[in-house]
């Protein structure tokens, strides 16, 4: 194999694929990226056996061929080459090493045979649909912060995507929860998603997807079966196993009878929570909200370091209420709200609270209170 290409093109593709490769691997081939030169392009592929990412980039192919080299090492080399440089990749005759040559720099990397590189067989996909990458990005960004990191309840370690009828319209809905908070976002279901199975997309796949959907005005093709999902975004193809588990009935934890409405200016509330929580202990991070007529008083007490209070104006005309929340969770939710106001629907100090953006009816958040 011998191929020449722009550093910027190679770096962009390596940037997408190398992140899938785990830094520590017991199987040596999984530390490598597969390079395949053919026609007028170089295809790069990386996998961790649960997730596979492929991207093709334009290149001048002098000799077609394929090999695998250490992914993070190649990425670091190309990253440190000067802007505008050309890079030549050349596999030696014996196939045991590959030269990376650019200007006066020359590197030699050990290769492992292409035949050893694992293939994530996708099988047949039952549903295929297309959607704007902007819409996919919205569903992910509004929910991913609530994904659980607790490995024991593995079925919460991802975002639950499913379709459902709502007010006569078919919606595509994304839900994530860690038991302390829940995030729900939805959009009109794209054509072709009707009857799709409810699926749980793993945290790592969500994280990689988030970095790929940043390109505006791009269509995402989504293909899925009961066990796998594939996203095609421009020149990138991401294939992932799905979490094999049943997502809990999240509708049961979304309260319907919360009748105390609090309207608050989102930015100043977030800043106030951030300020008073400076004094809270890392472990608890509880902030107490004393909600009364026209104002909210935020209080944090930490026996080890002191206390903090701050008052902010708010719209509220129900009975006074005191309720505590984890400050980090409050900040996570308020940072998701795009509008200037946040709406809280409360019941009492021990019940879940509903938080929403009055300007965005498609997103909803549930927060469990803390004892303070």
Number of helices: 6
User: How much strand?
Assistant: 35-45%
The major β-sheet equals: 12 strands, antiparallel
Terminus-to-terminus distance: 65 Å
**What ranges have pLDDT less than 50 throughout 5 or more consecutive residues?**
none
Taking all Cα atoms into account, the compactness measure Rg is 25 Å
Mean pLDDT metric: 94
The rough form would be described as elongated
Percent in helix: 10-25%
Lateral arrangement of strands in the main beta sheet: 14-11-12-13-25-24-23-18-21-20-19-22
Which structural class is indicated by helix and strand composition?
Answer: alpha+beta
The number of E-state strands comes to: 25
List keywords for this structure.
eight-stranded antiparallel sheet; elongated; 372 residues; alpha+beta
Question: Please, could you describe this protein's structure?
Answer:
It is a single chain. The protein is of the alpha+beta class and 372 residues long. It is built from six helices and 25 strands. The protein has helices at 7-18, 71-80, 133-143, 203-212, 266-276, 327-336, and strands at residues 2-6, 32-38, 41-47, 51-58, 60-63, 65-70, 86-91, 97-102, 105-110, 127-132, 158-166, 169-177, 181-188, 199-202, 219-224, 228-233, 236-241, 260-265, 286-292, 295-302, 306-315, 321-326, 341-346, 353-357, 360-367. A twelve-stranded antiparallel beta sheet has the order 14-11-12-13-25-24-23-18-21-20-19-22. An eight-stranded antiparallel beta sheet has the order 6-2-3-4-17-16-15-10. Helix 1 (7-18) runs antiparallel to helix 2 and helix 5 (266-276) runs antiparallel to helix 6 (327-336). The longest helix has 12 residues, at 7-18. The protein is elongated, with a radius of gyration of 25 Å. The chain starts with a strand and ends in a 5-residue tail after the last strand.
């Amino acid at each position: 194999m011998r191929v020449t290409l722009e550093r910027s093109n190679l770096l962009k593709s390596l940037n997408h694929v190398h992140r899938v490769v785990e830094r520590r691997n017991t199987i040596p081939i999984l530390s490598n990226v597969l390079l395949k030169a053919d026609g007028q392009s170089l295809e790069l592929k990386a996998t961790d056996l649960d997730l596979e990412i492929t991207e093709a980039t334009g290149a001048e192919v002098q000799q077609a061929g394929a090999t695998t080299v250490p992914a993070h090492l190649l990425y670091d080399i190309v990253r440190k080459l000067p802007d505008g440089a050309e890079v030549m990749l050349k596999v030696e005759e014996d196939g045991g090493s590959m030269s990376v040559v650019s200007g006066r720099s020359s590197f030699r990397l050990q290769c492992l045979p292409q035949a050893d590189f694992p293939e994530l067989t996708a099988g047949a996909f039952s549903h295929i649909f297309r959607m704007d990458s902007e819409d996919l990005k919205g569903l992910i960004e509004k929910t991913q912060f609530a994904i659980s990191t607790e490995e024991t309840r593995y079925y919460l370690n991802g975002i639950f995507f499913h379709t459902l009828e709502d007010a006569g319209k078919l919606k595509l809905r994304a839900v994530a929860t860690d038991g302390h908070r829940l995030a729900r976002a939805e959009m009109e279901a794209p054509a072709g998603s009707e009857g799709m199975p409810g699926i749980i997309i793993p945290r790592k796949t969500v994280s990689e997807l988030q970095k790929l959907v940043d390109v505006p005005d791009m269509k995402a093709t989504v293909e899925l079966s009961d066990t796998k999902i594939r996203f095609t975004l421009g020149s990138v193809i991401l294939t992932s196993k799905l979490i094999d588990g049943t997502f809990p009935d999240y509708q049961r934890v979304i309260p319907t009878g919360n009748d105390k409405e609090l309207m608050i200016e989102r930015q100043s509330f977030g800043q106030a929570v951030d300020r008073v929580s400076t004094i809270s202990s890392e472990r608890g991070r509880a902030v107490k909200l004393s909600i009364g007529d026209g104002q909210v008083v935020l209080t944090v007490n930490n026996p080890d370091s002191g206390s903090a209070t701050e008052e902010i104006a708010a719209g509220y005309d129900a009975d006074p209420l005191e309720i505590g929340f984890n400050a980090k969770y409050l900040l996570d939710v308020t940072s998701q709200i795009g509008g200037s106001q946040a709406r809280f629907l409360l019941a009492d100090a021990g019940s879940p609270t509903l938080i929403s953006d009055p300007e965005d009816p498609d997103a909803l958040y549930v927060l469990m209170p803390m004892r303070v």
